[in-house]
Amino acid sequence: KQEVTQIPAALSVPEGENLVLNCSFTDSAIYNLQWFRQDPGKGLTSLLLIQSSQREQTSGRLNASLDKSSGRSTLYIAASQPGDSATYLCAPSGSGGYQKVTFGIGTKLQVIP
Amino acid sequence: SQTIHQWPATLVQPVGSPLSLECTVEGTSNPNLYWYRQAAGRGLQLLFYSVGIGQISSEVPQNLSASRPQDRQFILSSKKLLLSDSGFYLCAWSQGDGPQHFGDGTRLSIL
What we know:
The complex is a heterodimer. By secondary structure, chain A is mainly beta. Chain A has no helices and ten strands. Chain B has no helices and eleven strands. The termini of chain B are far apart. The interface between A and B is medium-sized, with 26 and 26 residues.
């Protein structure tokens, strides 16, 4: 059974800082891994998807890396902004037509102006 | 572009009452559809998934059921709600092995 751990559970940083969110998973036989953000009381927004054959993906100020063999992924946020404040969720998926995804509890990020 | 709609946004129901939550997807055909529940302080739990009309798989035994009467419609139901059914319910879709896309969720409170 896949288990996902995200560290830290909460993070507060001043605006403009670069930061790293960490995710570890127990079963390295994954098909891909997604990073999501969730605003309070809202659904999830997909940020990045990394295929198991890839090492990293970039979108704007976001960069996600994947080390499948060690069961780790990191989300790097450059030049953080108050609008980045949200909970960030890591979600590795197993193979299969229905793409079974396991979610971590997330890292709650607060960017202080 | 593809969109996903969930309703209602919030719902307060008494114990023992029935439940029906609806989710529809637009702009894509034959999507994979999912129902998740998010409890406070816990990760999202997959409840049901569907790869086609009338095809429903359950991940956990529970008081809930799901149906897919049309290609882009997914319904979560219960005949009698329990207090433990309270939570934030999220519908999602994906195409093949692509990313999952989520609706805005339904906040369900059981009294």
